[in-house]
Amino acid sequence: MALEHAILVSLSEQSASGYELARRFDRSIGFFWQATHQQIYKVLGRMESDKLIVSELVEQHGRPDKKVHVVTAEGRDELARWTREPTPTERLRSDFAVKVRGLGFGDRAAVLQDIARQRDGHRAQLEHYRANAAKNYPDPEAVSETDLPAYLVLRGGIRFEQSQVDWCQELLAALEV
Amino acid sequence: MALEHAILVSLSEQSASGYELARRFDRSIGFFWQATHQQIYKVLGRMESDKLIVSELVEQHGRPDKKVHVVTAEGRDELARWTREPTPTERLRSDFAVKVRGLGFGDRAAVLQDIARQRDGHRAQLEHYRANAAKNYPDPEAVSETDLPAYLVLRGGIRFEQSQVDWCQELLAALEV
DNA sequence: AGATACATGTAAAATGTTACATGATTTT
DNA sequence: AAAATCATGTAACATTTTACATGTATCT
Questions:
Q1: A83, A12 contact by CB (below 8 A)
Q2: Which residue is nearest to nucleotide C26 (CA to C1')?
Q3: B149 contacts A34? CB cut-off 8 A
Q4: Which candidate among A17, A163, B24, B133 keeps its CA 20 to 30 Å from the CA of A171?
Q5: What pLDDT, in 10s, does the model give residues A73-128?
Q6: CA of A61 to nearest chain B CA: how many angstroms apart?
Q7: Alpha-carbon distances, residue B31 vs A94, A97, A171, B78, B140 (angstroms)
Q8: Using a CB-CB distance cutoff of 8 angstroms, which residues of chain B are in contact with residue A77?
C-alpha cells in the first residue's frame, strides 16, 4: 500500500498528528500523492496496530489535544525494505484523455472548453510549483543533500505540469479551426 | 465512473466482445486508461442493466461464441452528457515520486537503480508510442478529422513519456555523484 | 504434447471516495 | 455572530486488484 509509505516518509521527515499530516497532503507530499483526512486516520490506525508507528498524546492549551505519531524501528525497516522493491513503470491514467478521444461522439464545443480549462488548471499548478521552488530553492546549484530529494520531486511536478500545458496547447491548435 | 465512459468511447468506435475490449485496453485505449478483463466484464454487466449497451450473441466456428456489445441511443446520450461535464484538473499520483522523496530514509543504491529502471521503462514506452505514430500517422499534417482525436491522445502519451525520461535523467545527474 | 490465443465469468480483499458526526478556539 | 482553523473519527459506497474457475481451438 502506497499511502502507508507516503505517511512513513512524511513522518520520518517530522513526526505529526493526523491533522498535520492531512495538511501536508494538501501541500508538499500531496503534489504527487493525494489523501484525505478520513483515509489518513484509517491508515494511521492500521499502522499503529502493525507497530510501524506509535502515538503520543500531546496536551495543548487553547487548542484540542493531539495525537503525535512517531515512526518506530520497525517502521524504518519497512520503509527501507520498500525502497528496495522495484517500482513498476508508471502509466498515465487520465479521464481527460478518454474525453479527448471521445471528441467525435460528444459535444465538441464543450470538450474544447474543457481543454482550455484543463490548460488553465495546469498553468495555475505550474505557477504554484514555480513560486514554491523560487522561495525554497532560490539557488538550485546550492540545494543541500537533505533537501535534494524534495527539490527533485518538485522539479518532476514542474516538468509534468509544463508537459500538460504544452499538450493542451497542441490540442487547441489542432482542434480549434 | 470513468471505465464506463472509456468503454462507451471504445464501443462507439467499434462494437466488440468483452474479450476484444480487454485486448484494446492492452493497446490503444489502455495507453491512458488501464482495465483488466475482470473489471470489464463486471462493468459491461452493469452497463447492460442500465441499458447503455445491448449485446448480441455471435456464433463462431472454430472458436467459442462471443457476446458483441453495441452502444444504444441511451448510451450515446450518456456519452454526450459526460463530455459536457467539466473534468477536474488532473493530478500526478506517483509511487515512484514518493520513493524518490524517501531517498534519505531508504537504500540509496537501490533507489538509484530503480530510477534507471524507471527511465528504461519510460524509454521503451516512448519508443512503442513513436513506432505506433510512425506506422499509423506517417504524415501528421494529413491526419483525417476522424483519426485526429486518437492521434492527439497518442501525442499526449509521447509527451508524457518524454517528460518522464527527462526527469529520470535529471534525477540521475543530480544524485549519481 | 504443451503453449498460446480465444472466450467469459465469480469472489474476496484492498483501496479510495463521499457523506456523516462532533466539538473547541481563533479570526474577521 | 459567522467563518475559518484545529482536531479526530465512523460508515457507506465505489473502485481496483488479485485469485479462482472453466473450456475450446490453434499453433509449434
A1: no
A2: A62
A3: no
A4: B24
A5: 999 999 999 999 999 999 999 999 999 999 999 999 999 999 999 999 999 999 99
A6: 33
A7: 9, 9, 17, 23, 19
A8: none
